[in-house]
Amino acid sequence: MAPSRSLALLCALLLATFCSSSAASDAPFLVAHKKVALTRPKPGVERLAVSLDLYNQGSATAYDVTINDDSWPKEAFELVSGEVSKTLERLEPGSTASHVFVLETKTQGRFQGLPAVIKYRVPTKAVLQEAYSTPILPLDILAERPPVQKFEFSHVQKLVAKYGALVSVVSFVLAFIYLVASPSKSSGAKAGKKRR
Q1: CA of 75: how far to CAs of 107, 116, 148, in Å?
Q2: What's the confidence (pLDDT) of residue 165?
């Protein structure tokens, strides 16, 4: 009697798990990625291009989607273009949306931004759902950066022009010496037949 009761309990538990997971899978699942690109248009001024990419990875539409990124202090950052918030009527399953705005600062220091807040409505729930974007790494604003030496293709061209002929001649000589010095298989087979 005990094994049948535990088996019935296990079946009921599996059925409840399956029903709850199938109900939960019929909902939007929003993923937001926040990126910041720093540029220096002139000395003493740094521009931050903030982009938020939003993806609906769920199987249902999200309605009244609001993206809000107001974690930038107004005394340090000035809004140059765009808005820090954006509202979308809907975000279909599998679709994406982007939001970009540009900030400018003249304040030097380290800044750690907070994740953006995304609020959306699901038709089956009365309460607004909330999601967060990925956080950004700490930003060193107006920090002294050493100049970056980029590898230039012109250096390779100069080396090839200067030493290219020498390298090719040495390569041909080494290949010729290897071919002459290495025994061939056909001469080894002939020497074996003569010995018999």
Answers
A1: 9, 19, 31
A2: 84
Q: Which residue is listed with tokens 């800044």?
A: 111
In 10 A of CB 73, how many CB atoms?
Answer: 10
CA atoms of 11 and 7, how far apart (whole Å): 6
Give the number of C-alpha atoms closer than 13 A to the C-alpha of residue 36, restricted to the C-beta side: 23
Q: Give residue-wise pLDDT tens across range 83-104.
A: 999 999 999 999 999 999 999 9
Measured in degrees and rounded to the nearest 5, phi and psi for residue 4 equal: -70, -35
Which residue, 137, 53, 143, 156, is CA-closest to 95? 53
Contacts (Cβ under 8 Å, ≥6 apart) of 131: 30, 31, 32, 117, 118, 119, 120
| Cβ neighbour number for residue 141 with a 10 Å cutoff | 17
Q: State pTM to two decimals.
A: 0.61
| Spatial contact of 116 and 16, defined as CB atoms under 8 Å apart | no
Side-chain-facing half-sphere of 156: CA atoms under 13 Å: 4
Dihedral sign, Cα of residue 71, residue 75, residue 77, residue 81: positive
